[in-house]
User: Fold this.
Amino acid sequence: MSLEKYKDRNIGNQNYKLIGHEAFPQTNGEKFERVMKRMVKGELFVGLWVTVRTMFEALFKGQMHTTKYPFEKLPISPRYRAIHEMLRLLESGHYRCIGCGLCEQICISDCIRMDTRYDENQRKEVSEYTINFGRCIFCGYCAEVCPELAIVHGPRYETSSEQRASFSLFEDMLTPIDALKHQKEYPGFGAVSPNADENIKKTPLAY
Amino acid sequence: MSSNEITVKIDGKECKSVEGEYILNVARANDIFIPAICYLTRCSPTLACRICLVEADGKRVYACNAKVKDGMEVTVTNEEILQERRAIMEVYDVNHPLQCGVCDQSGECELQNYTLELAVDSQSYAIPDTIRQNKNWSDVLHYDAGLCIVCERCVTVCKDMIGDSAIKTGPRGGEALPKDLKDTMPKDAYAMWNKLQKSIIVPSNGTDFTDCSDCGECTAVCPVGALVSRDFVYKSNAWELKRIPATCAHCSSGCQIYYETKHTSISDPTEKIYRVTNEWNYVSLCGAGRFGYDFENRVQGKDEEAFALAIKAFETAQSIKFNSAITNEEAFMLQRLKEKLGVKLINHDAKAFKDFLTSYAKASGKGLYGGDLKEVMKSDFVISVGASLRNDNPNARYAFNHVQKMNKGAGLYFHPVGDTLVSTFGKSVEIFTHQVGQEELALYLILDLFADKERLDDEIKEYLASFHRHEKRIIKEKIMEEVSQSVTDKETGETKEVIKKVPKTIEKEIEVEVNGLVEMLGGNDAFYENFEKMKSKKESFSLIIGEDLYYHPHLHNLSRLVALIEEVCGMTLVMIPPRTNSLGVAMICDLDEEESGYVIGYNEHGHFRLGSRGFSKLDIPALNQQEGTFTNINKRVVPTNAALDYHGYELNDILNALGIGMRQTIDFTPQLGRIEGFKSQNFDDLPNGYTNAGEELRGYALEVVEVNKEEIKVVKFNESIVINEGEIAYRCNPQRQFNDFTDRSSQINEEFGAYVSPNKAKELGEEIEVIFEQGQSFKLKVIVDDRMQGDIIAIPDYKSYQNVYGVFGRDRYKKVTIKKV
Ligand code: SF4
Ligand code: SF4
Ligand code: SF4
Ligand code: SF4
Ligand code: SF4
Ligand code: FES
Assistant:
């Protein structure tokens, strides 16, 4: 590509259009006249009126637009990536995590660690699980890789606390068992795509 | 086996090989990939998976059991083969639980790999699933039948390498395959499925427990997560573990291993060994190597006070006592200390071995025995004398077994303690449970049976002949006798004489040649007859000798006999060094007979004790925390690396304090070159692995130096040393125990006690006191070893503080008095 066009800096030759507007005041008298005209026009009050109206609506008509943080919080997009949550199986209430270690492996800042063991029911038990939030960059890889939709990003974006450790253990992240009925399926990062069924081939089964 | 070199073409690539080699092995050696699941290098092909199907000269064959022929052209893949392979993988995936996420194979799974390799993304077959239960087969084995693909690799390795044959295929109880599949499905896939659907793996003794050697080799070869060691189940993903190439520290086999390490837990970042793995195609471990890995010595830091005391102790010491569970470098440093300080070096096991080797060298003209276990494995007749094969060196036992299973071989086993396992290795194994002290006779019998008589002295020939005598024996023989009977015809009423043949046993007197040696050694009567069969068509012979001969009042005569056998019988000879590095120590150190004065114990008893067990005055690193080299039974100098870190002092620090050290311990490795046979190679240049063709690239091989051969005569057997009455104690470790390190390992739980045969146990009760002639005594728990026979009791020597070596002195068998407690 030739750069000629860009190298031509002779702007005088270009075809600028001037937008139509009033003629500029030429004499001092004309200038004074314009100042006075603008001063006595009610434009200032047009603006003020908007404020007053909104104030009125907010105070007396119950149309308040301010969120009273921290008493109120705005709903957050499902794709927002905040502090992790560990979900449970809706049917049994057992935690979903199977201890596969994929999140631990994929974590870009190497901040997940877990201990597992063979439990009495011949299952793999997650005996300890932790995320070091001092290092987590909230990239969402862990949620995306999780085959069980067990680890997900929750909406909890307030991450200041006396100690970082205070929300980084398995128990802290796990849906409280009594809140199980409020547990929502996670639609965000790594969730099953709506057309997932169309994308898989079915395996024949015999019973 | 002929070694004619031939050329074959695999997928157009010219490959050189020898006749008799399998196509698969040739391909692997030439970096050509042929899918294969069930085949194990060194073991017999089982044709369980059939995925190695290839086309050789236009015919469909299985690469793992078809042998190459000169000029053969092999096609690895074509349309039809690909269909078979894909169908096979589809079948393997039928009802395989979707547990990959938790499976201990964690992606290192051959089922996954081949499923992906053959792009199986849909399934055409289905059959109802069968409930298959998880089982714990032993203290170490966990079998998840649901995951098992019945490739039979575990069964094969246990039979062909290990020799226990502790597991087999059993009924699965699955439904029969739909009839129509036979015609519609690819042929080999159908055959494979048909077998798979019927089987599962079970212990072969009919119980729920294997009751085996607990070597764990079956867990190593399992291509999926079906067989895992109990300790490792669901502990860690493979990808998290760091693999540290090393050498097992426990016995003289010096097997290649990897220590696999990871942080201990979330709250404890110190590295910990989670398991030991190996190159199972080329090396087989025993239970000590596989499970005895957590013997490290954790110290907080450098204990300066203890170190100062140690230096003082070294300055005053007159003797240093140690054993051979040390590296070559440590041995070299101890030798240096001897030269600098003039101390005596006392090492029980290496001294006995060295005396034997020196005496053998004089008689044979060679500094070292001629063979190694690899050559033994290739032979087809193997003899073992003076070794408790099962306990002294597991790999020698594997070799003995391998010869029987793979080379249609035969074997003779001479030992005073009966062993019920060895006799199961093959049909042509003859066991001689001789009396203690008759080892020379055993060697004379070998001479008699195998020697090229032309090359023997007249004196020996006469001596051997003197054992032979002719004897009249009455034997029973079956013959067909003709008898006449009168038979009455029913219709005609006529009576006829009919001649019939009936079998009859008669007694017959014949003259037989009796070999008095066989009789004296407790061989059975039929031996002579059997022996002809055993020996026929055999081409290569090997002899394994063990510790009984080094700890023997007649060790010099024995060593000469051994040298003579090696020469005139053309046998491959291997000597089992008593402990991990006895061979290295014997070559490197100048050892003294008796300790005197102030003794420093280096991992041993002494006035000042340095050791890697807690009760020492100065801690030193254990063998999984050290770099260095070992000299193993195969006469190789093999490297080992530190799996875990160590923060305390080591021997080199003491040398440095005394002004004779080096910067690092491994700076001594090239210095070993000063010793005859060793090479001057830097530690970091030593390889530790195997090639695809199975060639061992580990460290370097010792050079066997020639020494002056002296004319030495062997002397006749003198009966006076035979112990044939009273109670006898034998210094021998239980399986999987070798030294303080195995003792410390949490998964090795064989206890310190008196190991006896089941019969003897009935007689002895629960606990005994064993009193030696010199007055020492041990109170021991009686422990039954199902595989022992006879009355001899075995007392382990693996706990150095029990000083069992000291009590036995230069014998391995002692007369004792046993009191029940
Ligand atoms: S969000 Fe990213 S950085 Fe944070 S734990 Fe998950 S993978 Fe690791
Ligand atoms: S990826 Fe999911 S199932 Fe696997 S360990 Fe992490 S949270 Fe558990
Ligand atoms: S347990 Fe493992 S090695 Fe044994 S047959 Fe099953 S899959 Fe093969
Ligand atoms: S542990 Fe060893 S002896 Fe026991 S079944 Fe497995 S391979 Fe055989
Ligand atoms: S103890 Fe011996 S046979 Fe067993 S794994 Fe170690 S070196 Fe090999
Ligand atoms: S590898 Fe040849 S049949 Fe399995």
In short: Residues 107 and 142 of chain A are 6 Å apart (CA to CA). The two ends of chain A are 68 Å apart (CA to CA). Helices of chain A lie at 4-7, 28-40, 43-60, 102-106, 141-145, 170-173, 196-199. Strands of chain A lie at 84-86, 112-118, 124-131, 151-153.
